[in-house]
Design brief:
709 residues, alpha+beta, eleven-stranded antiparallel β-sheet, six-stranded antiparallel beta barrel, 37% strand
Amino acid sequence: MRKTKIMSLLLVIGLSLSLVGCGETTTKKTGNSSKIELIDPVSAEASTDVVTTRTMYDVVTYSGSVFPYIEEYSSLNGMTFKQYGAYPGNEVKAGQELILSDTKNADERIKNMNESILEMDQSYAEYLEDYKEQYEELLKAQDMWKQYVDLNLKQKPAESSADYADWKVGYDYVEACYKQASYNLMIAQTQKEQKETLYKMDRAYSVHQLEVLKKNRAQESISTNMDGVVVATNLYDSGDYINKDTNVIAVGDLNQKIFKCDYIAKTTLMKAKDYYVYINGKRYEAIYDVMEADEYVRLSAQNEKVYTTFTLVDAEDVNIGDFAVLAIVKDVRENVVSIPKAALRKDDSGYYVYVVRNGENVYTSVKTDFSDGVYTEIVSGLTPGDEILYNGEKMTGTNTVKVEKGELSTDFSQRATMLYPATVSLTNPIENGTTYFGEMQVHQYQHVEKGDVICTVRVVADQLSLTRNENKKTRLVERIGDWEEKAKKEEDEETYKDLLEGLYEQLKDIEETIAKQKSDFATKEIKASCSGLITYLREFNAEDVVNYNEFLCSIADESECYIATQDEKGVLQYGNTVSVAYKDNEKNDYSVTGTVVSMSAVGISSSISTEYTLVQIDKEKLSEAVQRANENGEWWNPYKYTVKCSARSMGNCLVVPRSAVKMTNEKAYVYVKNADGTIVANNVVVGGYNNSKYWILEGVTEGMELCLD
C-alpha cells in the first residue's frame, strides 16, 4: 500500500510544473529526513516553491465584432424584381423603397380609378346644375298655385250662396294644382337627396378602392421602416421572382451599436459576477439582449446559426466593424495565498503539503478553496513566504521582455473583381412618332459617361395626334373656366372643389403629354442614362424602325459599383477600411482606399448572406480605377484587384510574445520577474493572439518584466 502511494506521488510530481526563475535549473536538497524517502527510491531531485499571493481568474472570453442595429425586410406577397431603390452603403429614410417591382399595371389601375372618380364628380356637379334650374321652376310653380289658393279662399262665398258650387269647382282645381306642384317639388328634393347619398356612397367606395390599389402597389415594393444605411442585399436581375416572407435586404442604424458573438446560454450570464466588452484598450458596459426560448427554437428550426447580442452603452467612440472581446467574469480571487496544484497531496485526512523548515520536510495539512487547474487557493495552513516541497520541470529561460502597449491584427489579402449590381437596360425612350435608327456611336465594353450619345435617330412626327391633344387641352381649359365662374357666382367653392382639382390634374396630364410629344419629335440622339460599362450592344441597320421601349444596350451602372471579394472566414466586417490594389497595362501599381459596405454572415440572416463582401471606393476615383485596370481590354478578368487590410484589429492593448505565456489546462500564466529577482507566476486572461504575440486582458500591467521560454 505504501509503495503504491509512493509511485502515485512520483507520477504526480513528474507531471507537475515548477518555477525556479530565469536562468539555469536549480534544485535544493532537503536533508535526510525519513519524509524524503518518499521520493528517494526513483532518484528524483526535490525542489521547492515559495508560497505567495496572486490574483486568480475564472474568466471566459468570446471574440466578436460591433454591428449596427439591423432590420431585415421581405416581400409581403411575393414580387417580380424590377430595380433597386437603394444599394449597400446608401443612406435611406423611413418609407423609402428599397426594392421595386414592375408597377405598370398597378399604375394603370390607379390612373383609371382616378379618372372614374373625376367623371363621378363631374357628373354629379352637372346634375346639381340641372337640379338647381329644375328646383327654381318647381318652386315658382308651387308659389304661383299657392297664391291662387289663397286668392280663392278670400273670395269664398257662403255655402248657401248660388255661386258656391262654381267657386268650389274653381277652388278644387287650383288646390289640386298646388298639391301637384308641392308633390313635384318634394319628389325633386327626394331624388336629389337620394342622388347625393348614392354619389357620396359611390365616391367613398371608389376612394377606398383607390387607397387599396395604392396600398397594393406599395406592397409590390419593399420599403424601410427606419432611417439608416443599407447593409446587405441579395443580388437580382430584372425579372427575377422574390418569394414572399423571405428576408432579402437589410438596413442598419449605425448610431445603435451592438456587440455580437457566438451563442452564450442565459444561465451563464446570470451566474456571472460581471461581464463587459473590451475594445481598443477600453471597457464598455454591455446590456445583454435576452433571447427568449421560442426565438432560439425558431432560429434553430430555420437552420440559422444563433448568436448572442449585447447593446453597448456610452460607445460614441466605437466604430461599426470594430473587433471586440466579451469577458464573462465567473470568479476573481484577488491577492489570495496559492500554490501549484501539483504540490498538493491527499490522504484520508484531506489535502497536505510538505513545508521545508530547518532542512526538514514537515507534513502540513491545508484547507483549499478556488482552483483554476494550475494553482489552488490555500485558505489555511500556509502563509506567504513558506517554502514547500515541489518537484517539476524548468519553465523559464534567461531572456526577459517587458509588457508594452501595442496592436494586434490579422492580415487579410484576397483577389477581387469589379461588381456591378445595377445593370441598366437602355431602351428607346421616344414614345411618340416613328423612330428610325441612324448610326451607333459606341462599341461593346466601352466606358461611357452619363449623357454620352449611344446612337443617332430620325423621328417622323405624328402631327394629327399632337393637334388632337392641343384641341383637348383647349376644351379642358374652357370647361375649367366655366366651373370656376359658376363656383364664384354661387359663392360655393367647396361644392366644386373636388371637381376642379380633378380637372386641373387632367390638364396637367395633357400638358405633359403635349410637351413629351414635342420633345420626342425633336429628338435626334439617344444618350446614356448613367455612367458605366457597355456590357451588351444590339445591332441595327440604318433606317430600321425602332419601337418605343425597344432594347438598345446594357450599361453596368458605375454609380453603384463595388469591389467584390470572397471572405470565407468572415474576417471583414461592415465599416472596415481596406486598401484596393491594382495594376495598369504597364504593370504600374495603384492603390485606393475603400470601405466594406456589406454585412458579414454573423450580422444577418442566411437568406441575405452572399458569397461576396462588397467594398465601396470613392466615386471620384472609381472611373479612374476601372479604366486603368482595364486598359488591356480584359474587362471581366476576376483577378484585376486585390483587397488588403489589417482586420480583427485590437489596439491600445497589453502585448506580450507568445513565448512569455504558458498555457496549462486552458489557463494562461506569465512569469513575472520582480525587481528583487524573484519570479512569480501570474494568472492572466488572454484576449487574443496572432502568430507571434498574445494580447492580455487581465493579469499584467504595462512595464512588467516577464520571463521567456
